[in-house]
Specification:
heterodimer; A: 83 residues; alpha+beta; 5-stranded mixed beta sheet; B: Aldehyde Oxidoreductase, domain 3; 3 helices; 34% strand
Amino acid sequence: MKNNASQIKVLLFAELSEKYGWDEQYLSLDLIEDKKAKSILKHININVAHQSIIVAINKEISSLEATVKDNDEVAFMPIFTGG
Amino acid sequence: MDKIKYKFKIATDPFDPYREIEKWEINNQMAAMSIFIGRVREIDQFGSQLKKLEIHHYSGLTEKLIEKHLSEITKKIESFSALVIHRVGFIDPLEPIVLIAVRADKRGIANQYCSEILEVTKFKVPFWKKEWTDKGSSWVKNNTVLST
């Protein structure tokens, strides 16, 4: 779906992506009343403990309390296990 | 002063860490060097024989976080140079996953930052491991802690 000014891009990674069956979707920010990352998570029905989620907004590590703007890229990630 | 103080690379194919160090060393003249080479274990987190390790990452954020960390070190340490390579995709047991090579003018600095960069790649950068065995696959839930 084409991105436009009223949308945000939501990404899921690794186990989250596998569990919920998608890795990328566009969402209208109008659907998220308080524009917070934690409300996006709720809207897309991701039910995981908040302490086990890492959030990035526009490729910057952020938090579930952060406010999202139009055209932002919001990523929800499991705890990192690399290296 | 070195023009390029660090190099970070995501490797989608197998790499030879010793060859990479050899190529990198051409432009590095500092006295001390510490190297860490991490290889895929043969056993998964539950004790089964591992067939493959699969590594995912968040392209763009991975590079940004590692390079930010390396850049911060170069601001603190004049005599410092680092090479970091991390594999992604499917990897066989015993193949290299990560190479960290740090050159400095003192062994303490080389050792310290080699270890620090490794811990950053393990805990602060978006890499995820999935283990494949004859029984199927499972995501690694927790990272290994630093121990002797």
